[in-house]
């Protein structure tokens, strides 16, 4: 009987080993699960760099961004820099016990830095710089005993610098510049310390904070909101390391007092307290407290805890299980265990939030419908201040509205809100309500509708050659702004004539509506239930498939130019695709005029030559050889004629057309 039991156990262990060994030779299950959790928390991968992460039968050592140990059984480096990855840092990263380098520099990662990062005892390099992380720096980062470099620059981190950073004896470089950190910089020196003593020559003695870090050579604290005095042990650093703060030391360029506000300490006493050893401070405080104060504090603490617990229970009951603030990235089958990630609370703080009641009044009880699709309804309305708006309502069912879609909705609102150019649609605000369920985007209204309507529904006669040239130049300027003047760049999900809205004077406005139609349609087809793994896979695939990059926008711009000058749709049954039909005319000057819209009574041959040259550059088969809008926009601005006088000088018969055009 005992032999049978042992045999069954051996078979079970073999099967269990195959499940995880199949995912990467001798890798531990914890590392495989950690990589899987990291991948699931990335909701958008525009470059498809993670497409070869195969958890069924792949070897992690061959996956993009991963380096393994010499024995091929542990992940020692995860390097995915400058890839525009969107998502969150999953706490499961803390299970990569052998990880030495975690480099996720220059992506679009959101949320907080999980405290589980502190479990990476072998980590030597942590680079999360140039993302959109928020929240405080976790104190657990002080457990990274082997760390030599920490880069958290250019995020939205808040709070104080953890005192635990001073425990990192091997730390050589620390960059936390361009965040929203505040408070005093932890660090005080012994009484005999001079500014010349630093680095390897500094004595720990009674030092605290950064003054205990004997290996520290490079520190950048610039452009935060630090106050008080700069620790004496850091005085050897260049002035640029401290500028743009609220320090008392005026030798370095600091923020104006109005920016520092109340957080700036009133005097030197506040600064000294901030640099004081917390153990000594707490001892002095305890000595000065009367004996009766301790039981009062205990009773008060218990009452506060009870009140807080009641408030939490009431909030949970009210939410009825819906996740508005936290997002389950992974659920086990029994549903009892969840890993939570937190949406940054201030993602939409600078965007106007409108109530459904306000929009209902503005849109005349939502009766003024001006457009629709399977997943959206578009209403025209007038806000209280007289602004004309277009309200896009997403027709999503509440039971299919997953937490992943909520994150994406918020991110898209924040992304659209940063657009500010005369040739891009202006987002006035958004509506997000639960009862009844509503998700709406509110844009400025363009009174002349879309360019598509004018080109293909009998309105083409109103688009004179000059007007079309002005529209082309306006679109080019809008794309140049989106691609080169924003950081990170903004790519239209689908650039076509339906995404170009025309104002009263026919000025073009680029508006990105189509992304939701694509994502919601694919999500509804692929997801079985809102919490299933299929829903996550469908959502991620939708983002990767439909979120176009800049190169695709350049190609779309070339097709759009052909559509504008020819008046022909991008595809029709008789001639097929517009690009295929136009190719025989694009490179032959003597037949280029055949590309002009037959409804036009006048066009300039020189303009057509310039546009054909730009189109050929845009539709190059190799995306890497398509020039940027920084190159294309000046070509159009400088080489095509957009003034009225240029038309009139060519023909006296154009006075009649002028009456129509103006």
Largest pleated sheet:
7 strands, mixed
Strand order of the largest sheet: 2-3-5-7-9-11-15
Give the termini separation. 97 Å
What is the number of strand segments? Answer: 28
Output the number of helix runs: 18
Main structural class: alpha/beta
Provide the low-confidence segments as ranges. 1-6, 8-25, 192-204, 262-288, 318-345, 525-548, 648-655
Strand content: 15-25%
Query: Which descriptor suits the 3D outline?
Result: globular
Mean pLDDT: 77
Rg on CA atoms, Å? 30 Å
- Helical proportion, percent range: 25-40%
SSE inventory with pairings:
Blueprint: H1 2-21, H2 29-40, E1 42-44, E2 66-68, E3 75-79, E4 86-88, E5 101-103, E6 108-110, E7 125-127, E8 134-135, E9 149-151, E10 156-157, E11 173-175, E12 182-184, E13 187-188, E14 208-209, E15 218-220, E16 225-228, E17 246-247, H3 257-260, H4 268-275, H5 278-288, H6 293-319, E18 326-331, E19 338-342, H7 356-362, E20 369-373, E21 376-382, E22 388-394, H8 403-417, E23 427-434, E24 437-444, H9 451-456, H10 465-485, E25 500-502, E26 508-510, H11 514-526, H12 533-546, H13 550-566, E27 571-572, E28 576-577, H14 578-586, H15 605-618, H16 629-639, H17 644-650, H18 655-661
Parallel strand pairs: 3-5, 4-6, 5-7, 7-9, 8-10, 9-11, 11-15, 12-16, 16-17
Antiparallel strand pairs: 1-4, 2-3, 13-14, 18-19, 20-21, 21-22, 22-24, 23-24, 25-26, 27-28
């Amino acid at each position: 009987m005992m032999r049978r039991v042992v045999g069954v156990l051996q078979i079970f262990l073999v099967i269990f080993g195959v499940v995880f060994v199949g995912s990467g030779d001798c890798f531990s299950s914890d590392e495989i699960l950690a990589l899987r959790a990291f991948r699931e928390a990335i909701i958008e991968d525009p470059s498809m760099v993670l497409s070869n992460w195969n958890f069924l039968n792949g070897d992690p050592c061959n996956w993009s961004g991963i380096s393994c140990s010499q024995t091929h059984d542990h992940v020692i480096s995860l390097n995915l820099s400058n890839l525009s990855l969107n998502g969150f840092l999953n706490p499961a990263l803390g299970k990569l016990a052998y990880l030495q380098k975690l480099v996720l520099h220059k992506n679009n990662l959101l949320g907080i830095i999980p405290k589980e990062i502190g479990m990476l005892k072998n980590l030597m390099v942590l680079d999360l710089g140039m993302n959109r992380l928020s929240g405080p720096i976790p104190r657990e980062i002080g457990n990274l005993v082997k760390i030599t470099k920490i880069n958290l620059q250019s995020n939205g981190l808040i709070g104080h610098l953890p005192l635990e950073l001073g425990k990192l004896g091997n730390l050589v470089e620390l960059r936390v510049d361009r965040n929203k950190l505040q408070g005093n910089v932890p660090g005080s020196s012994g009484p005999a310390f001079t500014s010349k003593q630093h680095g390897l020559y500094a004595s720990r003695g009674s030092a605290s904070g950064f003054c205990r870090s004997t290996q520290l050579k490079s520190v950048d604290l610039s452009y935060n909101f630090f106050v008080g005095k700069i620790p004496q042990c850091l005085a050897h650093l260049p002035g640029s390391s401290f500028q743009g703060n609220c320090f008392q030391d005026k030798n370095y360029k600091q923020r104006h007092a109005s920016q520092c506000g109340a957080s700036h300490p009133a005097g030197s006493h506040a600064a000294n307290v901030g640099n004081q050893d917390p153990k000594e401070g707490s001892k002095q405080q305890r000595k000065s407290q009367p004996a009766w104060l301790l039981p009062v504090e205990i009773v008060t603490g218990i009452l506060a805890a009870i009140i807080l617990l009641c408030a939490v229970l009431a909030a949970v009951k009210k939410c009825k299980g819906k996740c508005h603030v936290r997002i389950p990235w992974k659920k086990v089958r029994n549903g009892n265990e969840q890993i939570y990630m937190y949406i940054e609370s201030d993602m939409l703080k600078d965007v106007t939030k409108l109530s459904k009641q306000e929009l209902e009044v503005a849109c005349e009880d939502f009766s003024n419908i001006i457009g629709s699709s399977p997943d959206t309804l578009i209403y025209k309305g007038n806000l209280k201040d007289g602004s004309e708006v277009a309200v896009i309502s997403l027709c999503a069912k509440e039971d299919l509205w997953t937490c992943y879609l909520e994150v994406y909705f918020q991110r898209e609102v924040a992304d659209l809100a940063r657009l500010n150019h005369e040739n891009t649609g202006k987002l006035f605000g958004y509506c997000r309500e639960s009862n009844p369920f509503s998700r709406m985007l509110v844009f400025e209204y363009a009174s002349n509708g879309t360019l598509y309507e004018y080109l293909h529904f009998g309105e083409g006669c109103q688009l004179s050659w000059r007007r079309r040239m002005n529209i082309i130049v306006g679109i080019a300027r809008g794309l140049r702004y989106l691609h080169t003047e924003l950081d990170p760049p903004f790519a239209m999900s689908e650039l076509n004539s339906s995404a170009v809205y025309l104002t009263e004077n026919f000025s073009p406005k680029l508006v990105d509506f189509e992304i939701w139609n694509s994502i919601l349609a694919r999500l509804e087809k692929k997801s079985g239930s809102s919490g299933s793994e299929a829903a996550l896979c469908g959502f991620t695939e939708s983002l990767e498939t439909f979120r176009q990059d800049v190169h695709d926008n350049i190609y779309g711009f070339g097709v759009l130019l052909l559509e504008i000058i020819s008046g022909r749709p991008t595809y029709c049954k008789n001639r097929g695709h517009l690009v295929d039909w136009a190719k025989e005319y694009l490179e032959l000057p003597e037949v280029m005029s055949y590309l002009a819209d037959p409804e036009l009574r006048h066009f300039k041959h020189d303009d057509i030559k310039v546009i054909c040259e730009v189109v050929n550059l845009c539709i190059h088969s190799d995306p890497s050889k398509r020039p940027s809008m920084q190159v294309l926009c000046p070509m159009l601005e400088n080489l095509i004629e957009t003034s009225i006088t240029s038309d009139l000088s060519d023909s006296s018969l154009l006075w009649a057309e002028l009456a129509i055009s103006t």
